[in-house]
Amino acid sequence: MLPTYLNGWGWLLLSLGPLLYLQKRLHFEIQAVFLLLTHSVEISIAIFSLLFFPGVLVHELSHYGMAKVLGVKTGRISLIPRSNRKGYLQMGYVETAITDPLRDTLIGIAPLISGGLIVAFIGLVRLQLADVWYQAQTIGFESGFNSLILAIRQPDFWVWFYLGFTVSSMMLPSESDRRSWITIGLWIFGLLVISILAGAGNWLVDTAAPKVALALTAIAVVLFISDLIHLVLLIPIWIIRLFLRKITGYEVY
Fold first, then answer.
1. What pTM was estimated for this model as a whole?
2. What is each CA distance from 170 to 7, 34, 71, 123, 197, in whole angstroms?
3. What pLDDT, on the 0 to 100 scale, is given for residue 2?
4. For the chain, which residues make up each domain, given as ranges?
């Protein structure tokens, strides 16, 4: 059994791992369906971009807003998809001036912060997933299922579900957003080593670690909500792709 102060890391890994897979797989399945329907790469990319536009908008505006708050100069901002140097589809970008690793990291992680807050609000308040989980856990599966049905019957449920999906699917930092993480990680590791050598090890375990674990658990809750949304969508879209493959005779790799 993990120590209490490591539980946060455990929940974070359990929620983040599936999301990385589900996000990548769901994006592939959606693009494959569009390609099988249109037989056009350009049209498929255009439809895919429109589908995820709210999430891209939140992602790029988060970068832009954080840069402004930190006093970092910004250049062009684009919400139009394009292929990057590695051949991957880049949904949008914000140009920022070269700065120090700390501010660079904060700018890069901004979409996860803002997107996480939005997803938490949608999942816990608008979609009432917390109530569904509570009913299922304390009373039983049938009660949880009935609570879910009541939530789905709300007039605006699917609007919030769509927004939660697009925002959560685009909130994870991209490769360029993570470029300073190694540097910051080494700094944090160095500070921890110095603190332990200075005799602050017990304070870190007793005081700081529980607060960090609580914060990581909160992040994990948001990621679990995103996992659930992606999983609910992945199954029917995968079935649709298999059906289209059968009737068209084409496959997408």
1. 0.83
2. 26, 19, 25, 16, 40
3. 47
4. 4-248
